[in-house]
TrEMBL record:
GO molecular function, one term: methyltransferase activity
SUPFAM superfamilies reported in the protein's UniProt record: S-adenosyl-L-methionine-dependent methyltransferases
Keywords: Hydrolase, Methyltransferase, Transferase
Gene3D superfamilies in the cross-refs: Vaccinia Virus protein VP39
Domain Methyltransferase, chain residue ranges per copy: 55-150
Name of the molecule in the record: Class I SAM-dependent methyltransferase
Length: 204
């Protein structure tokens, strides 16, 4: 649970501007209609997996990434805190199971989803939006939802009040070890001055 008075940043944004979630949805709908390449994260994860693998899209938003992984033949569950985004995912991308859930309290077996996942994906800067006090618990719960041999994949940018070294420290404290660090979804190597991090993590 979050500390008293501490909020998920997305919650603060949507409370200040109730139209923000719909704006976010329409932004990506427009980009898709205009032919923008929105599939980098999905291609990255798909390359890690055998056909028919199980993927948890943690912080799935309106389903952009999870829907592409489902179209590639994977069994996808998406969760997000924002019910407006989940409603858009259900409308635009039927097929995967989309759930409203707080990642800091994630317990899919309690919701009837007992089988673990080959990859838990957390893209779209999600880890920079969560309440700082919940970061380690979220990472721990991601790891708990893995199958044997599964991986957690997290991507977010610099300059969002979450230093990459702090993230890696939090991951280690949550029982996760770094297998590979990259600076983009197209496999560029990570350097200390990189402005983006893609981390592939395994249970330690």
């Amino acid at each position: 649970m979050s500390d008293v008075g501490e909020q998920h940043a997305w919650t603060r944004i949507t409370e200040a501007n109730p139209e923000h979630s719909q704006w976010y949805i329409e932004r990506f709908r427009t980009m898709a209609r205009e032919g923008a390449d929105l599939g980098g994260e999905a291609r990255f994860v798909d390359a890690m997996l055998a056909r028919g693998s199980r993927v948890l899209d943690a912080g799935c938003g309106p389903g952009r990434v999870g829907s592409l992984l489902a179209a590639a033949g994977h069994d996808v569950v998406g969760v997000d805190l924002d019910p407006v985004l989940i409603a858009a995912a259900e409308e635009d991308h039927p097929g995967p199971r989309w759930l409203v859930a707080d990642l800091a309290e994630l317990d899919l077996p309690a919701q009837g989803i007992a089988e673990g996942f080959d990859v838990v994906l957390c893209a779209g800067h999600v880890m920079t939006f969560v309440a700082p006090s919940t970061r380690r618990e979220i990472l721990r719960r991601m790891g708990v939802h893995l199958r044997d041999g599964g991986r957690v994949v997290v991507g977010f940018g610099a300059g969002r009040d979450y230093d990459f070294d702090d993230f890696l420290t939090d991951a280690e404290a949550s029982g996760l070890a770094a297998d590979l660090l990259l600076s983009s979804w197209d496999l560029r190597p990570f350097r200390k001055d990189s402005d983006f991090l893609v981390a592939i993590l395994r249970p330690a």
